[in-house]
Write a structure and sequence with these properties.
Blueprint (H helix, E strand, L loop, with lengths): L4 E7 L3 E8 L6 E4 L3 H14 L2 E8 L6 H19 L8 E8 L2 E8 L5 E5 L6 E2 L2 E2 L1 H14 L2 E7 L3 H20 L16
Parallel strand pairs: 3-4, 7-10
Antiparallel strand pairs: 1-2, 2-4, 5-6, 6-10, 8-9
């Protein structure tokens, strides 16, 4: 199997980001975004998706967390697009439901090349550490848009820390499942012949 890796940089007036990704990794992560809880979520994403991931972001946190979270999602989405290439042989579809104590998140993904995002649920508290809770939803939307995913996600719970973490773990497990190579398949999982 060819290596499914990518290295992507993004630099704007708001952020400077470097991301490396190995889709077929061991779950190793080195993350520094300046937002402790967001770092924890990206590390959890790598661990549970078995993705090797490095993320370095210097963002305008003196304003708020929006640009950092959004631009990391954009860059990570571009890294998935680059690493998966023509998507030959991938499973393509996956869904996961992940609990964390009282919280339950569900994530359904199609690595379709057609960006679409739906979200159902609300976060029980407005912030977790220095991360604004609703930015978890925005992260998913920005990732889906830039990785070409159809992504449906939802969460229910009583604690925003648990709700956000369950979402990131569910996303990781679903993406790991959907991007796996099906050894029976020699082409792409589409009647159109491309994704």
């Amino acid at each position: 199997m060819t290596e499914r890796t990518a290295a992507v940089t993004r630099e704007t007036a708001e952020t400077a980001i470097e991301v490396t990704l190995d889709v077929d990794g061991d779950g190793d992560a080195t993350v520094d975004t300046g937002i402790g809880f967001f770092d924890h979520m990206l590390e959890s994403f790598a661990t549970h998706g078995l993705f090797d991931l490095t993320v370095n972001c210097d963002g305008d946190l003196e304003i708020d967390d929006h640009h950092t979270v959004e631009d990391v999602a954009i860059t990570l989405g571009e890294a998935f697009t680059e690493a998966l290439g023509d998507k030959r042989g991938i499973v393509r579809f996956a869904d996961r439901k992940v609990p964390l104590d009282e919280a339950v998140a569900s994530v359904v993904v199609d690595v379709s090349g057609r960006p679409y995002f739906e979200f159902d649920g609300e976060f029980s508290q407005s912030e977790v550490g220095e991360l604004t809770s609703h930015m978890a939803q925005h992260f998913l939307r920005s990732l889906a848009t830039n990785a070409g995913l159809t992504l449906h996600a939802g969460v229910d719970g009583e604690n925003a820390h648990h709700e956000v973490e369950a979402l990131f773990k569910g996303l990781a497990r679903a993406l790991d499942d959907a991007t796996r190579i099906d050894e029976r398949r020699t082409d792409v999982a589409s009647t159109k012949g491309e994704l």
